[in-house]
Amino acid sequence: MNSNTPDSCIRLVNMTFYAHHGVHREEHFVGSKYEVDADMYGNYSQAAQHDDITETIDYRIVYEKIRHLVTQKKFYLIEAVARAIATEFLEEFHLLDSVTIKVRKRNPPIGGVCDYAEAVYSAKRT
User: Fold this and answer.
1) How many CB atoms lie within 10 A of CB 48?
2) Residue 92 lies inside a defined structural domain of this protein
3) Does a structural domain hold residue 71?
4) What CATH code is carried by the domain that includes residue 62?
């Protein structure tokens, strides 16, 4: 990040999808509930100053990209889901300096009671 520009964060929290990821064959067939958080860091000062959506990141586009990656592709690991989202965001959204993606899998098949498993992936623009 450029130290001369303010760093701000746009955060979308708890986007929920039903998808078919997992190591076990049954998980790909039955599916499960997944939740995604996206923290997108960059300089949004122009958007804030001018109240102009063209100078920031459109939440609807963010949501649609995440929805597509989570529901249309199949992964074995939630770590891979988080990495795929972060990588695409840095390629697609030039305003981003860095991104942190959290992917939660509700009721993971671990042989016991667990609310969710969560993978966190952070990436910075190089």
Assistant:
1) 13
2) yes
3) yes
4) 3.30.1130.10
Choose the catalytic residue: 65, 73, 102, 105.
105
Domain total for the chain? 1
List CB contacts of 9: < 8 A, sequence separation 6 or more: 39, 40, 41
pLDDT at 6: 55
Could you list the residue range(s) of the whole structural domain that residue 111 is in?
A: 8-124
pLDDT of residue 10 exceeding 60, the answer is yes
Which among 107, 103, 106, 105 is positioned nearest to 121, based on CA atoms? 103
Query: Is 1 among the domain residues?
Result: no
Active site residue 124: no
pLDDT tens for each residue of 15-74: 999 998 888 777 777 788 999 999 999 999 999 999 999 999 999 999 999 999 999 999
Instruction: Give strand pairing partners of 15.
Output: 36
The SS3 assignment for 46 reads helix
Q: Is the sign of the CA dihedral 9, 58, 76, 116 positive or negative?
A: positive
